[in-house]
Fold:
Amino acid sequence: MDSKLNLFLRKINLKDEYFDFFKTSTLDKILINKKNNHFLVKITIDRYLPKNILTNLIENKSLLSPDLTYNFTVRNPDNNILLDYYPYFLDILKEKGKIKLIDIYKDSLVYENDTLRLIAYNKKEEDRLKEISNDINNFYHNIGFTDYIPVISREDKKLEEEISNELSNISIPEPIKKDVIKEEPKHYSNNGTPRRRKSTDEGCILGKIIDSEPIKMSLLLGEDNDVTVEGYIFGAEYFESNKSNFKIITLKITDETDSVACKVFCNEDEEYTRLCKALKVGTWLKIRGYTKIDNFSKDELVLNARDIMPVEHEEEKITDDAIEKRIELHTHTMMSAMDGVADEVKLVKQALAWGHKAIAITDHNGCQAFPHVYNLVRDYNKGKEEKDKFKALYGTELVMVDDNVDIVIRPNDGNLLDQTYVVFDFETTGFNAGGADSIIEIGAVKMKGGEILERYDELINPGRPLPAKITDITNITDLMLEDK
Structure:
């Protein structure tokens, strides 16, 4: 057990007999939201927590913060014990007032075909389970289970047989003949389970016509049950579970004020294929759904789509109406590492479209954009008179380094792998290590022949509170530095 985890477990008064379970575990991160004092503690463990240890952790978390969430990564998961957690979690939901009668849900979660599923045998049960399915998925994700737990609708054959038998003993008068209504065909999953397909309005990609006005994505600041946005797709990712028929399309959408990930859930092959074809990169969409902090997306705010429809969008054309055109003499392209994202060819074409006569490419520490710009300008200038030609100015910004500073003391010409040396690292209270900042952690390893001979790690109390930014970067908190 690493020292950070040991300190944390003692701070929350974990029972002594439970410490053996964490012998090979590590405390990965402690994330703190200063606004609401929420703690997210990430721990890696070998196997799922026994229920008694999990209960002790949750009951004692208020000693550190009343709003604390654990997130476990399990190296060797044994999914056969996952059902044991379910009654305990239902008790938690009941205490929070999210459910009233536990008996309604106690048999809903099943483990079959190597996956967890929430089974509903009628529409009422399906609606109930969908109301709490996010809570259930978040709970199981936090204890280390990585798959999504879908709500599966199944007909209750036993109940159907009982009703059929009852009806066979009752004399029923001949019904009045009515026009026959053609029944919609049922849709089945790969395992033969009937699925209820959500009807899609004409002109929509998914769900119903959206008549609500969209808001700017820059205003998406937290969880909301009813959100409408409008934007275009600039990226898409696809997930198909190998343990069930569950599928997720994750769209990356933007309206130029901000961007958000939008998830579309599906469990039918035919519907999934249709959605993949309709949701192409570059398509403008109007989307209505709900936003939620998604544990599967590294605790990012995600928009879960209920309704999607395509929209017409006219690109705003920006023109340069100045009589005397400007010339950009300081242009960074994507060839400037960490300092530019624009394609150099698109930049030159835009300057041409605006009627500019020249542009200067001045990337940081590189000239990789030069050939692309040169070829484009050469082709553009072919056959033109001198006054109509476009000019490219080639430059670069270089970083000057003082090479007289000694950064190696007592050097020798030996092979590094044959030497005994120490690799060390410091964490400090700020970003000015040569000024007023103090050391809060020292870590070091002694190396030889590519092997670690010794390790050293020590936390140090600087005598003052840590800035929030340092806690975010190092995951070291004031609590961890007490008495160090």
In short: Residues 374 and 398 are 21 Å apart (CA to CA). DSSP finds ten helices and 19 strands in the chain.
